[in-house]
Amino acid sequence: MSVARSKARRFAVQALYQWQMAGQDLNDIEAQFLSEMPVRKVDVVYFQELLHRVPARVDELDAVLSEYIDRPIDELDPVERAVLRVGVYELAERLDVPYRVVINEAVELAKVFGAEQSHRYINGVLDKVAAKLRAVEVAAQRKTTRA
């Protein structure tokens, strides 16, 4: 797990939260964050990917999420919604990132930015999403864990 990539996720969740709440233009948000972040310590390319690809696929990501959440997507806490969208995007599109890393990173983000117990909710939802989107990887991991 790369520290630079962890920081990219952290900034992406903050930027996506801002996009969700204020409806600002993504390019303006990107420019603001790039001017403020320590670019040598952040995977800027990954930040940009998450910032632009998550909103571009938001309907598809929300459709996946809606199968596993207990309320309409619009009723989720905005921080939880941003974290979950990033997690589902990574599970669906970034097969180079192990599913456990995606879930652990999302849980850590929820602990930092979310409500008191939101990390448990995030963990449960993304675990179910991973079982669907990464069924072979999850099964292999569970098999080696039991052995």
Number of helices: 8
Q: What sequence of helices (H) and strands (E) makes up the elements?
A: HHHHHHHH
| Strands, count | 0
Which class do the helix and strand fractions yield?
Answer: mainly alpha
For the biggest sheet, the summary is: none
Within CATH, the superfamily carries the name NusB-like
Distance between the termini: 24 Å
Work out the strand percent: under 5%
CATH class: Mainly Alpha
At CATH level 3, the topology is N-utilizing Substance Protein B Homolog, Chain A
Low-confidence stretches: none
What key phrases describe this protein's structure?
mainly alpha; 147 residues; globular; N-utilizing Substance Protein B Homolog, Chain A
Provide an overview of this structure.
This protein has 147 residues and is an all-alpha fold. It has a single domain (3-146), classed as NusB-like (N-utilizing Substance Protein B Homolog, Chain A, Orthogonal Bundle). The chain is built from eight helices and no strands. Helix 1 packs across helix 2 and helix 4 (58-66) crosses helix 5 (78-93). The longest helix is centred in the first third of the chain and has 20 residues, at 3-22. The chain starts with a helix and ends with a helix.
